[in-house]
Protein: Alpha-D-ribose 1-methylphosphonate 5-triphosphate diphosphatase
Organism: Falsiroseomonas stagni DSM 19981
Amino acid sequence: MDWMIAGGTVLRDGVLAPGEVALSGGFIAAEAAGGARRLDATGLLVMPGLVDIHGDAHERQMQPRPGIGFPAGLGMRDSAAQLLAAGITTACLGVTLSWEPGLRGIEAWRATLAAVEAVRPAAGCDLRIHCRFEADNLDALDELLADMAAGRVHLLAFNDHTPGIVKRIADPAKAAAYAARAGVKAADFIALAERAAAMRPDVPAARQRLADAARARGIPMLSHDDATPAMRATFRALGAAVCEFPMSEAVAEAARAEGEAVVMGAPNVVRGGSHMGWASAAPLAERGLVTVLASDYYWPAMLEAAFVIEARGVLDLARAWALVSANPAAAAGLADRGRIAAGLRGDVVVVDAARRAPVATFAAGRLAWLAPGAAARIA
């Protein structure tokens, strides 16, 4: 079905202006086809669909409480619906592949990939896999390489949480919390962590194998939680051109000096700072040191963050919106989306600016989600 979105204010070429957007055959068209359905966007904004480069909120649909799991397919269907309701048309699901059992272990990895592939054809939202590979999980290296070769992985992030976990589990309460998430006894979790840490000497070679495979497949790579510019340089040498969640302003500056994308969380912007006590994203975005905002752990934060940034008075809405659409698309290697231009994928979100809320979400040219009461706008 073809569409004409008419009467609204359209973000096109970095400018918000009255206009129309035609969708035909799954793409944005130069003009409407005969017989196209019409959505009246009077009083609304017509914006590029949101592109989420990193979000792991789907984990809550699969394990809403520690140790309480639900089928991955059920959780993924629910996730797709929530994503569309948040205006997100491309979701790079952050799936952790860790040495931990449970939610972030190898069995959950397999189940999540299978669920995404089963749900994807009817999901509406373009569901993609952002593998968050835990550095010391060398037991899973060959399986991940096979999944990459099979085209099942679309982004690769180099995670390294093991040293921090090993320190924290010295506290019995924290050890118990990690164990509950993994579904094992605390003593068993501690033993697993110590075994993983013992693999540290083999990590550099494993990272190199992954980086070589990613380059061969054209899979964009990200570093994660870089603590220093030197750490960023190490991952840059591997080919990781995206700096994700830098832990200091100096790291962000080093990445931007090399022209690299810098990702921080939209919840950081909405809440006014990092819940971890790290760098604050909004002022860094205003200075050009953060170029991408991701949902991180809360999908509705992406759209809200664009308006929060605009309200701060430094960036206009067009530039703020690029942080959640055009820029993440470019960082993820997706040149076919993130902007409203003829020939690009038909991903559009119609937004009520006063409420900071989606009214309609179009994905690949199809009406994928409609807010209550908005059907009256369709002719």
Q: What stands out?
A: The first strand starts at residue 3 and ends at 12. The chain has 15 helices and 16 strands.
